[in-house]
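Input.
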Amino acid sequence: MTQNLTDLEVAAPVRRRRPRMTSLAIGGTLVAVLLLAALLAPLLAPYNPDAQMMSARLLPPSAAHWFGTDGFGRDLFSRVIYGSRPTLLLVSLILVLTIPVGMLIGICAGYLGGWTERVLMRITDIFLSLPNLVIALALVAMLGPGLMNGALALALTSWPPFARQARAETLALRRSDYLAAARMQGINGLRLMFGHILPLCMPSAVVRAALSLGGIILSAAGLGFLGMGVQPPTAEWGSMVAEGSKVIFDQWWVAAAPGGAILFASLAFNLTGDGLRDRLDTRNGN
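Output.
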């Protein structure tokens, strides 16, 4: 009888588990679509994003113009696709500037302790208390509008969360058996900080970076909306929303198209960050 049951279990078809649609899978797919749209913009855009045709101004969405046209007759679908380029470039510049600075300050404060920690953390608290967009506007007003100046302005107030998180993790690791074993092997100072502590702090920094990208995109769009970001005629989502706000009650699509792109990008990075947190955080049991 036991042999017959074993034969039946072997003969029964193995049920394959369906892959779950996780936040990481959905967000990663959306981010991949966004990146491909930015890289392949010349192939995907049906029109020149800067070509003006006054006879076709403010046309509603149609087969010829999927998202309609703006006040200068420019195709909104083409401009939305090209608008992903400065947005992603600005976000990349901000991350390149903020993550190293925040990690460096946080690890130094947590490892060295004493007056070094107090000074670095008080500086971090000062920058953390500053309103991001207001300070960014003030700096851009002094430096002048532009992509690089906008990245510098937003990066100035975006690094403190990375510093505080790196400090907290360094404090937890400072008395761990792992670092004690490294010290017994003669590893100290910078080699210990950046060869052993930094790799352990990187996963949480990656998660925080992914979760903060949605807010960074909104801040970058806010600069463009106020005319402090990428300057016309370059396609940029924030400035496109500003143009569409003038005719939003009659020609809603002019503001809706770039606004939907901002929503899409923010949602993509938020889902990716949420999925990375579930995957990398051991407390979730994954």
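The CA atoms of residues 110 and 168 lie 7 Å apart.
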